[in-house]
## 1
Amino acid sequence: MKLWFLGTGAGRPAKHRNVTAVAFQLPEPSSNWWLFDAGEATQHRLMEVPLKLSKLEAVFITHLHGDHLYGLPGLLSTRSFEGGETPLTLYGPAGLKQYIDTVFAISGTTLDYEIIIKEIEEPEEIVFSNDRFTVKAGLLEHRVPCYGYRIIEHDQLGSLLVQRLKELGVAEGPLYGRIKKGHAITLEDGRVIRPEEVIGRPKRGRIVTILGDTSPCLRAVELAEKADVLVHEATFEAGLEEKAHAYGHSTTAEAGEAAQKAGVKQLVLTHFSGRYSNEELSNLVQEAKKRHPDVLAARDFMVIVIDRDEDDSV
């Protein structure tokens, strides 16, 4: 799985940094992807990366501030022109449906696919779940209702030990598929082969947490617990906590502290104030590293590959 940072700035676009949008690319062999926030001109950023709008299957909006939302209507419209025909689900705070309905009604926009809008009703709830992933939303501390999202990949069955099957005299074919699904098989000579004999250890599911704008709060830490990657805003540098909190934001040091408390593997800072150039991001990283050892500063078009460690087994 991968994270594509399409915009890493706060408030308004800058020459070196667009406003917030993060794409979550599902694990291979899927070519589908999800979008977290859609600041102004997100669809323009997508022209620079190999993600097709027709393969977008869900959009998760953290809150209804413009720098996280203004790019959504245009992107939804363009998806029709890009061959998008499958239903698309939007998740976000109350008011998201009214916003989309109003923009489309006034502009006369029509789509070639169905939009399903699910507004989050509780401070904490599971908003999505299928056979591969669960997504939990949690209310953060901001000036308007704002959510963070915890993407939980379910634990996967271990790999089929093909060489072991051959040694046991199991011919390739339907029996491989049956035992891979967790069923015992009986051979012609009466021997019973159980899944645990020929399947490797289950693989631990990965966890990715993407937070919206927030001042330090307990729920941010809870959403990030033991995550492989935490994407946390760092609007201001350490020492500007009072200014950050006045606007519902965090500093680099506070992002690092949240990562440390949650026990995450990697912290990725984003949502930087326009006062900081890209050349200054290394200084911001060093501030966060005083609290957590593994820190990156996101830049527009940066890609993070989230692999499993070799010992990531259940």
## 2
Amino acid sequence: MFTQSQYRTPIRRRIGAALSVVGLAALSIAMLGFGAIEQQSPAVVAQPAPDFTLVDLEGNEHTLSEYTAKGQTVVLEWFSPLCPFVKKHYRDDTKTMLTIQKDFAGDSVVWLRVNSAKPSHPAADPQLNKKTAEKWGITTPILIDSDGTVGKAYGAKRTPEMYIIDAKGVLVYHGAIDNRPDAQAPGEVNYVRNALTQSLAGEPIAMPTSKAYGCSIKY
């Protein structure tokens, strides 16, 4: 005759085994999910740029496709107020980004800055970004990508890392702002200026990609 405790033992074992299977299944699903994220293909030059909607520091939404639908070319600059490689392009003696932005303002070019730093990192602080924008003379939106979804979709790894999307929504340039990969001074050749000039003229872009330099994005 089996005792009550002898009945419990196999039942407990069966329950424990079932829970283990469920746990392993959940873990497998989670791992598959992470794998899918990691294997997501980043944006590719000459292909449609990933569409997105992000909110700026004032809480206003900005959707990429809404700009291109108006026939506007969009420049995306991955941005950090703390990165020395970004700072060199906003100094009073350089103003690289603002000068290009101003020079192409009459050509339906929109310049958007994207901050993909995680919320816990100082570079993501909204007040710091607002103060920096005022100090550096930035008047166009700084978009907040706090979960890094847009940055990862574009394969962005550095600040500043630059992208140009033409009025058809096609990514036509990805890479560095220029040819001097240090934090001291701008380079002699500005890839973004050249690519904008060629794209707006309907010409092939001589250098559609380059190696971005700068600080790592703090995802």
## 3
Amino acid sequence: MSRATGTKPLAPASNRRRPDFSRRDTSLVELMDDPRCDAALLDATYRDFRVINALVSGWKDVYRSRIRPRLSATRENTLLDIGSGGGDIARSIARWAHRDGYRLSVTGIDPDERAYAFAASRRERPGVRFEAASSRDLVERGDRFDIVTSNHLLHHLDDAQRADLLADSEALADRFVVHSDLERSPIAYRAYQIAAWPVSRRSFIHVDGLLSIRRSFRVDELARVAPAGWTVCGQKPFRVRLEFDAAARRRGGSHA
């Protein structure tokens, strides 16, 4: 739930009216995106990401079906996680790859110094590093990675920021890009509202998760704004993925 760029959040809107799920409500701003938010609650939110993402993000399935088939068994692989937040997704992918016998070096980046400080303060995992940087910073210094990922990032971005992220992703990836996010749905909203209630008073995770759902795309909406060469697909339950097959683009072939 971290942004790829360091731009200021959009102006907030009231969260008291009954949610309208017929459209994205991009006026909403998550509490953790406020630079003046409570630091202790923010750290608690980063800690809660590990549990919430394990329950709702579906990254184990994404790793098995989209990432693992593209890893080389004969050399070290590299992966970039953009907007890495608390770092739990980066660490999880590294752990799964190591378990499966692959050599994978994972870099997590976030322009928010608070996110970087939290992620870097956690117990180190071999092959995982974090950096306070944006995707544009890495493009400008010429970095390249086999795989590029992000989690719960797309819904934070306006049209120009999303275009910049996707252009940066194409420039950074040698094999594959997958940006995974929530899919807006009243059922998803209600289910999350109930499931996350037990932790609602100890962090921002409950309120911000609900705001994230209301800001998120549906599959058809994301497909309408996806650039040429990008593929949009749904993932159960209540997930949407935006993918780019860089290797196929270089071969001039179809997207897998």
## 4
Amino acid sequence: MIIIKSPREIALMKEAGEVLIGLFDVLKANTLPGKNTKELDELARRYILSHGGVPSSYHYEGYPGNICISVNDTLIHGIPSKDIVLKEGDIVSYDCMCTKHGYVADATRTFPVGKISDEAARLVKVTEECFFNAVKLVKPGVHIGVISHEVERTAHAAGYTVTPDYTGHGVGKEVHEDPYVPNCGDESDGPLLEKGMTIAIEPMVNEGKVGLKTLSDGWTVKTRDGKLSCHYENTVVVTDSGYEIITLKKEN
């Protein structure tokens, strides 16, 4: 069931979104060679708690981290570990969720570790373009499939692949709500957008083939061919005539 949010509920979600906006500034500044992903996870936990939120990922369906931290060929759900140490040239995706006043905001950023290759930088850039090209099409009366199709079109035009196995989703009181928001499909697919819907649009893009594998920990999803993957996400509110992104810093 798709839950339409009231203005009061959207205002509460925006407070959670503000926490994530600040958190990404802190994580970006600390994405450095020699840092391990466990200490970055602890940094995120302290930041979220100190700003009145709760890390929504912690123990969600048994997940052991406060945020998901995925390096290089890990597409999603990387578990923070002292044994995963960042090095120059890596790319790191931080999938962060914050619950505040009972409402969730969800967003992901991929940051470089020092100087990265031109190929890695292009992948990060195109993954962000997948989101921004798609979100521009959000308005009441548009099928979810319009978003999905534009993510897929943008990725494929750049020579990349997207997986059908993992999707964006509704978000609100729960981490995952209806509707699903796939990263591929036809423009006529899915329900129609309505004012007050709140969705997480999250392109997940592979440099190589679409094939993925889940490690024995039951969470970490990697590319089968070992090539890079990238993830970018924001929580989006459907408004009267368009959209509002509540997890993105406003431009002055």
